Amino acid sequence: MPRVKSDKLDATFAALSDPTRRSILSTLSRGPATVGELAEPFDMSLPAISKHLKVLESAGLIRREKSGRNFNCSLQSDAMQEAAEWIAGYRDFWDRNLRSLDRFLKSSGKSAESRASRKTNATPSGRRTTPAAKKKQTNKSR
After folding, report:
1. Class for domain 1-112, per CATH?
2. pTM higher than 0.70, yes or no?
3. 57-93, pLDDT tens digit by residue?
4. DSSP string for residues in the chain
C-alpha cells in the first residue's frame, strides 16, 4: 500500500470530513471562484467561510490568491491525489480478499451441497444412519 505522510493525509481527511468544505470543493471543481462566490450558498458569515477555506488551504486542497481586493480560490489536486492513492491501496487489498472469500464460499457451497445430499439418510437428530442402525430401527417399528 502506498506510503503517504501521515500528517498530510490526516489533514486531508479532516478537511474532507466537513460537509461545508466538501461543498466548497465541489463548487471549485467547476472552476476558480472568489471567496464571496463560495460564501453565497451558505447561511454563514464571510469570516466563517474564511475559516473553512483556511482548513482546506492548510490541507493543500485549495490555493488562495489575492487579485486586487478579492481572493480567488482554486482546487489543488496533489493532496486529493495522495488520498486517492492511499484509498486505492486499501481498495486493492479488499478486492483481493473479497475475491478470495467469494472463491472459498463458492467451493464451500459445493461441499455443503454434497453434505446435504448425504444427510438424506440422517436421523431427526441429524446423525447419519448406518445400514445396521437402519435395520435395527425397522425391526423396532414392526
Report:
1. mainly alpha
2. no
3. 999 999 999 989 889 999 998 888 999 988 988 888 8
4. -----HHHHHHHHHHHTSHHHHHHHHHHTTS-EEHHHHHTTSSS-HHHHHHHHHHHHHTTSEEEEEETTEEEEEE-HHHHHHHHHHHHHHHHHHHHHHHHHHHHHHHHHHHHHHHHHHGGGB-TTSPBPPHHHHHHHHHHH-
